[in-house]
Amino acid sequence: MPPKNKKGKKMAMKKVRAAIKGLMQGEDTFEQAADKAFSELDTDGSGFLEKAELLDALNTLIGAEQDERAIPEKKFEKFFGKLDTDGDQKISKDEFKKLAKRLFKQLQKEEDSDEEEEEEDDD
């Protein structure tokens, strides 16, 4: 079961941030980074992210491939439904880029918030 406390959530978010930064390292633009990330996640080379590919990637990202911390199926189905805006049961590169852009903006906000908290703690 995933950590329910605030510290556990912060640790999980740090893993996500590190993974996203790792994907973006060495890339000149967000577009290039998103293209690279999509290509790495599209393990079968179909040009789309099928449910299994995305679920595996997310569970790997949070370090929960085959254990009790894995993303519950109902939650994943709901998440996938929000991403799959055209309802074709797969995520296109455009759908992925929209998600990546939203995630990156959210992570930037949280990172700024974390930095402010650290500065307050130093006072």
From TrEMBL:
<keyword id="KW-0175">Coiled coil</keyword>
<dbReference type="InterPro" id="IPR002048">
    <property type="entry name" value="EF_hand_dom"/>
</dbReference>
<feature type="domain" description="EF-hand">
    <location>
        <begin position="71"/>
        <end position="106"/>
    </location>
</feature>
<dbReference type="InterPro" id="IPR018247">
    <property type="entry name" value="EF_Hand_1_Ca_BS"/>
</dbReference>
<feature type="coiled-coil region">
    <location>
        <begin position="93"/>
        <end position="120"/>
    </location>
</feature>
<keyword id="KW-0106">Calcium</keyword>
<feature type="domain" description="EF-hand">
    <location>
        <begin position="29"/>
        <end position="64"/>
    </location>
</feature>
<dbReference type="Pfam" id="PF13499">
    <property type="entry name" value="EF-hand_7"/>
</dbReference>
<dbReference type="InterPro" id="IPR011992">
    <property type="entry name" value="EF-hand-dom_pair"/>
</dbReference>
<dbReference type="GO" id="GO:0005509">
    <property type="term" value="F:calcium ion binding"/>
</dbReference>
<protein>
    <submittedName>
        <fullName>NCALD protein</fullName>
    </submittedName>
</protein>
